[in-house]
Model the fold of this input.
Amino acid sequence: MAYDPSQQGLSFGATASDNLYFLAETAFEVPGAPVTLGAHLGYTDGALTFTPDGTAFDWSISAEWALNDRFSLTAAYIDAEGSPAPGGLNQTDAGFVATLSASF
Done:
């Protein structure tokens, strides 16, 4: 859970607002394979949404492959609720993200 109190940085109108975020995540290793599968579900209520009622869900599913002791490759599909602003960009389009990570 995360909470951002009412502050100017969360002001998207005439007054400052706050934001409450709940999340649940899980991950498990695939037995006998260098792969970890993960899932995320989040719910936000407040200023940091792109919905008319100020509440939204976001979610993702991912797979991480350990390439060796130092490098891993992660692929994730990420999505969030939201409505595009009139004449604006849709800031909540779903997307596929790939990440190459190194540990030293």
Q: What stands out?
A: Residues 19-85+93-102 form one domain. The chain has a mean pLDDT of 86.
